[in-house]
């Protein structure tokens, strides 16, 4: 009997592919994004600008030539963000408009975090990770701040998203992978240009490459492709970093790190201690003995340690510089829901909202970001005279100048003894400071008023019969 030889090729082993965008997957992404959009736009213009935000408004209001000259001497590390805001503020300069790019960047970060969780663990984890990031007090605080931290956080997530998407499966067309690596290189470049310290998150990227390869993808030469892409991406940040290092005297006020400030950095990633405990508990439940978990732990834990070491050598360590590590903790927490349904993920969102509700509402008040400079400026504007001055401090140079910019009265800034042409001087000081302000010796106090975080007093020369002396 003749032996029949089969000509059918053996079935190739199955490979995992990204989950398709089913209606359930779309909903899993849409829910956190919608939550983030509503939350981050809620009362975005209510808190008064704090000093750093006022500096953003002040410096981006320069002409382009003046701004470039300013960046060549100071704040080169903020140059990309300031140039972006310089164009943005041509269309408006109110508090809400200044903060809108940060809000949109944080919403986009939530979307990418949810999509990464969906690809790794499914729809329930996507809902949980996205909601936990969107509802964190940290996200709300920096989504409503006219500084580059929300944009840097988005770019840190975008770099990971592009890295995970960059590899191609064996047998697929190579240009797909090359486009992905180009996107990764661009994300790394933008990340370093916007916030050079955020490049510390790259320490986790080799582990992500290893995890991607273990997932059955990444191409035949993922390490070579990654090295080329990351080297290309670091060119522009290297130039920015060199310029910022030459200007390091501008951050000489930063204290060397301690165990306490290192702990503050981890708390800052969540926004409050209570929310950090919630995320950490879920993250422990979501940990697995796999390369992806190791990579996420490295993303969350190693940059603070590295920046602390750098901070011992040169002023560099601020907790807010490490907010770019927060998405890793949200992803680890969301991983705990890989075996649960979406309704359980929704429940943890309600729990997160309950834990975060008080700080979420407090930070949206007039003094949610710091002293209520807006109300102080209104008091001054209501009784400002042509021969008035304000005592020169950071408060008056930055915040007060912003809030009095459109007023008819623009009091001059003075320090030390009053010029003969000045008869009254306004003084701003912290509300906790009970001592008599400096620079008012020989002057008579007319009145004082306390606002949230701030005391405003008006002083005048002793009665001499001179016009305007009372």
From TrEMBL:
Keywords: Cell membrane, Glycosyltransferase, Membrane, Transferase, Transmembrane, Transmembrane helix. One of its GO terms (cellular component) is plasma membrane. It is found in: Cell membrane. One of its GO terms (molecular function) is pentosyltransferase activity. InterPro entries: LipidA_mod_glycosyltrf_83 (IPR050297), RgtA/B/C-like (IPR038731). Residues 84-206 form the Glycosyltransferase RgtA/B/C/D-like domain. One of its GO terms (biological process) is lipopolysaccharide biosynthetic process. The keyword Ligase does not apply. This is Mannosyltransferase. It comes from Actinopolymorpha pittospori.
């Amino acid at each position: 009997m003749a032996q029949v030889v089969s000509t059918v090729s053996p079935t190739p082993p199955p490979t995992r592919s990204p989950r398709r965008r089913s209606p359930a997957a779309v909903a899993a992404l849409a829910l956190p994004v919608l939550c983030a959009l509503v939350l981050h736009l809620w009362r975005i213009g209510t808190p008064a600008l704090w000093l750093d935000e006022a500096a953003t408004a002040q410096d981006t209001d320069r002409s382009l030539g003046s701004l470039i000259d300013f960046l060549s001497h100071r704040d080169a590390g903020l140059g990309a963000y300031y140039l972006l805001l310089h164009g943005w503020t041509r269309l408006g300069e109110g508090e809400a408009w200044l903060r809108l790019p940060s809000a949109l960047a944080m919403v986009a970060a939530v979307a990418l975090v949810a999509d990464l969780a969906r690809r790794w663990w499914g729809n329930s984890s996507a809902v949980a990770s996205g909601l936990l990031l969107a509802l964190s007090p940290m996200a709300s605080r920096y989504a409503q701040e006219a500084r580059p931290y929300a944009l840097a956080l988005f770019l840190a997530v975008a770099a990971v998203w592009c890295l995970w998407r960059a590899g191609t499966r064996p047998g697929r067309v190579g240009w797909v992978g090359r486009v992905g690596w180009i996107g990764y290189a661009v994300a790394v470049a933008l990340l370093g240009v916007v916030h050079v310290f955020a490049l510390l998150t790259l320490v986790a990227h080799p582990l992500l490459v290893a995890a991607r390869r273990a997932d059955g993808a990444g191409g035949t030469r993922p390490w070579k492709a990654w090295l080329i892409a990351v080297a290309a991406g670091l060119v522009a940040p290297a130039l920015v970093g060199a310029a910022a290092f030459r200007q390091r005297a501008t951050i000489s006020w930063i204290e060397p790190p301690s165990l306490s400030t290192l702990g503050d950095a981890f708390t800052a990633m969540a926004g409050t201690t209570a929310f950090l405990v919630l995320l950490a508990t879920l993250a422990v439940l979501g940990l697995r003995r796999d390369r992806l978990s190791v990579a996420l732990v490295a993303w969350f834990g190693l940059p603070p340690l590295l920046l602390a070491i750098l901070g011992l050598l040169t002023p560099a360590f601020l907790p807010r510089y490490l907010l770019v590590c927060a998405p890793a903790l949200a992803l680890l927490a969301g991983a705990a829901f890989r075996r649960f349904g979406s309704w359980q993920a929704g429940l943890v969102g309600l729990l997160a909202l309950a834990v975060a509700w008080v700080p979420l509402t407090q930070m949206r008040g007039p003094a949610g970001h710091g002293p209520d400079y807006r109300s102080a400026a209104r008091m001054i504007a209501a009784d400002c005279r042509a021969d008035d001055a304000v005592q020169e401090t950071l408060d008056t140079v930055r915040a007060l100048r912003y809030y009095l910019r459109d007023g008819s009265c623009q009091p001059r800034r003075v320090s030390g003894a009053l010029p003969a042409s000045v008869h009254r001087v306004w003084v701003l000081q912290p509300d906790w400071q009970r001592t008599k302000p400096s620079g008012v010796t020989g002057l008579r106090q007319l009145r004082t008023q306390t606002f949230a975080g701030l005391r405003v007093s008006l002083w005048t020369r002793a009665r001499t019969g001179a016009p305007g002396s009372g």
